[in-house]
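Continuing the batch. This is chain 6 of the set; chains 1 through 5 are on the previous pages. Same settings as before, nothing changed between runs. Recording input and output for traceability.
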Amino acid sequence: MEMEMEMEVQIQTHRETAKMSCEEMTGSTDKPSDLSDFHEDLTAKSSASQPPFPKRRCAYQKKKRRQKDEETSDPEVVNRSSGRERSKRRVNCDNGIVPQQGKLDSSAFECYLENLWTSFSEEKRSSFTHLDCLWFSLYTKESYKAKVLDWIKKKQIFSKKYVFIPIVRWSHWSLLIFCNFGESLQTKSRTPCMLLLDSLQIANPRRLEPEIRKYVSMTSHLISLQFKKLMANHSLLVGFLHVQYVCAFYFWFNLLFPRFVLDIYRAEERPEIPKQISRIPLKIPKVPQQRNAEECGNFVLYYINLFIESAPENFSISEGYPYFMKKNWFTPEGLEDFCKRFNSTCP
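Output for chain 6:
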């Protein structure tokens, strides 16, 4: 019974924290329920990656862990609160931003991000905007793709110099930044580019690239070369069938595989062609790295905070990059001070 109540509290917490940004974008309450459903899916997938245990054994282990927590907690706090109150407090503690006290879930991250965002003046953040932390993950699900693209379109990202896109994939947080997306792809001074800031580079941040901008082009010249090569060793029919197969593969690959950036350009009805969009540089600067397995969400929030404070007026990958985004960008002490400052901003 207590487990069920705890789950209800988690879902309700996520729905309430997501509601503000959802209503701002859509003017309705349809999105929070969708996000809650997807949050449950993410939770289920994360749990599925753990070693499977029978339900009774899981319940027994949770009971033993709860008894251990109560034994090591402040006796006065434990004795004066009911089981439901302890569940709420446990949820809030798990959502905390204090380093080394657990990863941030999507609802806690969104809460801290909104508070961080409002801490800057309107003038300071006029060149920036950010997307909801679940939108990228939602986009990868076919049933949500059209909705996400519609929400992004309402954010008018091409009117901003910088767009922050928090990404949570494989139980890990990273930060994608669109720079100069409103500029022409032909310009040399303010070339559109993307930055991927990852506090765990040993996990290979490039694995996100196919979902960000994958587009495979099968030009007529390449098809001709394939056909001539096959004709030298096989019959006309074999060569023709092979080329048909290759063309079909590239067509369905581009149709079914997520292409986040390309789809954003298409949703905005921009004039750029796919080949130009696929050439937008994706840079991965060597930024400070996390010290344990649970700091990634804190790092992403701190990346956003420092980037807003230090972003250049005119960002260029040919002059000045990587700017301040280096291994010594900030110290662990600076991150800890930031976490302590924002720890009390969300319940």
